[in-house]
Each structure stands twice: as C-alpha cells, then as structure tokens.
Amino acid sequence: MPLSTRIQLDRPALSPVIAGCWRMADWGWTPMERLRWIEQCLDRGVTTFDHADIYGGYTVEALFGEALALAPHLRHRMQLVSKCGIQLLHPARPEHRLKSYDTSGEHLVASVENSLRALHTDRLDLLLIHRPDPLMNPFEVAETFTRLHAAGKVRAFGVSNFTPSQFALLHQSVPLVTNQIELHPLHRAPLHDGTLDQLLGLNLRPMVWSPLAGGRLFTGTAPDALRVRAALEDIGRRHGVSPATVAYAWLMRHPSRPQPLVGSQRIAALDEALAALGLVMDAQTWHELWSAGEGAEVA
C-alpha cells in the first residue's frame, strides 16, 4: 500500500495507567464483582482495559463482556484494547494443531469479530498484533486493517513485542499508534536497542507489560533483583512512597511517556501505579535504578 494512500487515524486517548485483564479468569469473581472492579478503575481515571483473544484460554474477553453487559452505559467511558495473532493449542480452538502465529487477513478479521461479540461492543479502540509473525505480509495486514477501520470495528492499530525494524515495516503501510513491550529495571533492552528511540521519534507512547517484572522485583532472588529491590526500597523511603510506586515512576520518567499495564485484581495495586504520576524522579535517581539492574555504573 503506497504511503500516499495510508488511512488516517485518530490516536485513542489511553489512560496513563492501563488495567490489564490477563488474569481475570483466575480471580473467580461473579459478574457483579467484575463490574465493581471495572467501576473502581474508571472512578480512578484508569479508563483503558487491555485484553487479548487468548487470555484465560479464550475466556477473559467474555468474562469482561458479561460484566459490561450489566452496565452498558459504561462503554463510552472506556477504551478497549485487544491483541490477536497467536493461535493456542486449546480445546476452545480444536482446529489448531499446534501453537503458532497467524496474521493473515482472514484470521485478523475472525479474531476481531470474536472479540467484539465476547466484549459486548461494536468496536475496539485499539487492536494490536500480539507477537511478530515471520510470515506476516505487511501489505495484507494493512489492507485488512483498512477494511476493519472503514467498517467502524477498530479505531486504531498497533503491535506488541515488535523490534524496531518489524515496527517500521508495518508502519510504512499503515499508521501504528503503539508498541506494547516489556520494560522494567531487570529488562532494559528497549532503552538501548532502538525500540524507545523509534517511538519517541514518532511521538508515540509505548504500552508496557510486566512493569514489575512479573513480581520478580519483590520476590526474585537473583543478584540483579536483590540489587534493584534494595534501591527501590531506599528510594521509596526517601520519597515516602512504596517501592512499587518507585518502579512505575522509573518507567514513566522516560521521555516517550510509557503507559504501564497493571494486571492485578487489587485496586491498591492500581493506586500504587497512579501515585507514580505525582512522583518527580530526577535523572540521578533514575540512573541509580538503571545501575542497580545493570550491576555497574554507566560507562
């Protein structure tokens, strides 16, 4: 698709902190309990909810949609994000012979239709390709995205876990608005491999999954985790905030303005992330955490 014919999209205004729904199937909640969690998120200004078709063995979107159906008026207050492109070997998808990737137009359209039905909505605010697919045809993906946008089924598009070159390949055919990546003091590669440089140059905000390293910042026993934990606790004492708040503030300090996903049922976990919005972290403190993760000072 030539650049001159690229679709023009409005970037959805995602909340600075995003509610991750990955584990919702494990929470064991009733529809009313799920609705109450959604309402508590919205009341705090956490208006963006992150999904993927595969979460919970293809069940989480339906669990969320079941709760949303109890209060459909809430839909206009939120942004729904979903991801697709991974095929799991799962009883819910008996046609899958093994775990694989599929970014064909047919699969993307089918995934969107399934997500819309499950979420009880007529549109996704943002659709992401979940993982890089070695067989991805960027022109087919761009054409499919264009059709989904024209039909009013998806407002904007992005990717997840893409390298800068993979992002550029698709972005030249269809405008992407984000790359959802892993970033925390134990995984600093995006700071140095061009991922954040690219997004900053395009004035695009990264979404960040596993901002607390899947809990390893507070439970890990590896030397880097122990060093980072000590630094988080020390900085937290100096500023009167929790170590988790310090970890979120470290992410948000980057000029690309990352938006962390908080995948917890605990509203207190969201509050810790939101508190980071008010914590001004100077460059020396930021490098203190970087050095703790690296195990060495900057060169």
TrEMBL record:
Q: Name one GO molecular function term.
A: oxidoreductase activity
In this protein, which residues make up the domain named NADP-dependent oxidoreductase?
17-289
Pfam families (UniProt xref): Aldo_ket_red
GO cellular component, alphabetical, reads: cytosol
The record's annotation in InterPro entries points to: AKR, AKR_Detox_Biosynth, NAD(P)_OxRdtase_dom_sf, NADP_OxRdtase_dom
Superkingdom of this protein's organism? Bacteria
Protein name from the UniProt record = Putative oxidoreductase
Identify the species of origin: Sphaerotilus montanus
